[in-house]
Fold:
Amino acid sequence: MTRRITKVGLVQMSTSADKAQNLKKAADRVLDAAARGAKLVCLQELFASPYFCQTQDPSLFDLAEPIPGPTTELIADAARKARVTVVTPLFERRAPGLYHNSLVVIGPDGATLGLYRKMHIPDDPLFYEKYYFTPGDLGFTTIDTPAGKVGPLICWDQWYPEAARLTALSGAELLVYPTAIGWHPAEKAEFGADQLSAWQTIQRSHAIANGVFVIAVNRVGHEGPSDSGLQFWGHSFVADPFGVVIAEAGEGEETLVVDCDLSRMEFVRRNWPFLRDRRIDAYGDITRRFINPR
Structure:
C-alpha cells in the first residue's frame, strides 16, 4: 500500500485585544509551519480576537467582517507566500444583523477553496454564542485541497457524532476542529482533568468510528477577569484513524507539525469496516429529537 504523507500544522496561540497583532502572529506562524514542511495549516477558532462570547455586548458585533475581508486577505497573502493551504476561522458578517462563526479554507495560491459555517451553537455560562451566531446553513461538507480532503467543523460541532459521520461520508480524510475551549478557573481543580479527557475522548472516537484523521486546534491563555473568565487549556492534538494520538501540544503557545499518512485510512477501514456494516435501513429515527419509550 503506497504511503500518502501530508504534513499538517496546528497553530496554538494566545490572543490580545490588538487584532492587528493577532493577525500578524497567526500569519507568522503559518509561515513558520510551512517552513517546517506543513502543507495544511490550521488556525484556532476566532483567532483574530479574544474569545468575546463571555459576555453579551452588542458593540462586539463590530468585530465581525465580510468574506472576503481583512482576515481572509491577510491569511491568503501568507498562504501564497508559503504555498500552503490554511484553515482560517473568523467572525463572519454576512449581512446587517446576520452573523456566523465561520471558517474559510484558503489554498496555496491564495484562492478560497471552501466556506463552512458552524452548525451547532452553544449557550452556556461564558459561552454565549447563540447571542452572536446564526447556525450554519451550508450543511456538512468536504473541501478538496492539495494536502488532502478536509472536513471542516468548529468547536461545539466536535461533540456530535452525527456531524463527524456526515462529514466523513462526504469523503473527508481529515476532520479539522478549530476550537476555543477551556476551564472556568474555579472548577479546574475538581473537574478539569475529566473535562479535558472527555474533550479528547469524543474526538478520538470520531477518528475511530469513521476511520479518519482528527485535527483539533485549541487556543491558550486566560481571558476575562483575573478571578473568573476562562482559562483555555490548549492540548491541540492529532489522532489517526485508529484513534491513536500521534501528537499533542501542552498548555502554552506552540505550533505542531505532524506527519499524517492518509493511506492508513485504507488499512484501518479494511480491519474495522464500520462503513460496510452500517444499517442505513434502520437509522430513520436519528432525525427525531427524541424517541418516546414504548
Observations:
- The mean pLDDT is 97.
- The helical segments are 19-35, 70-82, 129-132, 161-169, 185-210, 264-271, 274-277.
- The first strand starts at residue 5 and ends at 12.
- Residues 26 and 43 are 7 Å apart (CA to CA).
